[in-house]
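Below is a filled-in request sheet from our internal design queue. Each sheet records the structural input a requester submitted and the sequence that came back. We keep these sheets so that new team members can see what a complete request looks like end to end.

REQUESTER: design group, bay 2
PRIORITY: normal
MODE: inverse folding
CHAIN LENGTH: 200
BACKBONE (tokenized):
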């Protein structure tokens, strides 16, 4: 791959930020980022979606799940799936949620090459200016030191507007049917990526 293509790919990844058109759903240690499109709204209001509907699939930007790692007193990435270019933003939102506890790479499962590239950028690339890092160990990833750190954001991300956009999008939902519907869509989006990883 040419150096110019590599640089373009890195800049594309770095360029994605939390923009006003995005909505943010946070439930416990699950983060979902999406565009509140008309197609998604219509499916949610009917509580019926064809998962093959490309418009609905394209509305989901990414989903990240975390779990607390007692040994390191940090949050650990459990699973992630994101549209191209949005991985770093999802990780930063994970760091934002983890706050001072910090975020570490997965300690129990596979880490994809794409995820490793993102962690490497936070370690010594474009994303390194946005994070603090503290070494936690070198037992799990002895040849990839950047995976052995806990990362925290230097400046927290203001997520209030994106969270408010999500609440407005759902609207009146006394029995949480719309919330459950979205949760199931997000879970399906995430599971699709996990199946791809373990089938390869």
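RETURNED SEQUENCE:
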């Amino acid at each position: 791959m040419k150096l110019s293509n590599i640089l373009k790919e890195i800049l594309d990844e770095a360029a994605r930020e939390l923009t006003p058109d995005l909505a943010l759903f946070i439930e416990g240690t699950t983060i979902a980022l999406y565009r509140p499109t008309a197609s998604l709204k219509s499916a949610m209001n009917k509580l019926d979606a064809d998962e093959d509907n490309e418009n609905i699939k394209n509305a989901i930007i990414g989903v990240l799940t975390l779990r607390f790692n007692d040994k390191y007193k940090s949050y650990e990435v459990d699973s992630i799936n994101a549209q191209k270019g949005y991985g770093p933003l999802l990780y930063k939102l994970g760091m934002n949620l983890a706050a001072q506890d910090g975020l570490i790479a997965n300690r129990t499962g596979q880490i994809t090459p794409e995820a490793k590239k993102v962690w490497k950028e936070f370690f010594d690339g474009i994303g390194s200016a946005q994070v603090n890092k503290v070494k936690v160990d070198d037992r799990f990833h002895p040849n990839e030191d950047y995976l052995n750190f806990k990362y925290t954001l230097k400046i927290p991300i203001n997520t209030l507007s994106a969270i408010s956009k999500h609440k407005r999008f759902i609207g009146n939902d006394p029995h949480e049917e719309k919330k459950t519907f979205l949760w199931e869509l997000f879970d399906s989006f995430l599971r699709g990526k996990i199946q791809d990883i373990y089938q390869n």
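SHEET NOTES:
- The two ends are 23 Å apart (CA to CA).
- The mean pLDDT is 88.
FILED BY: M.R.
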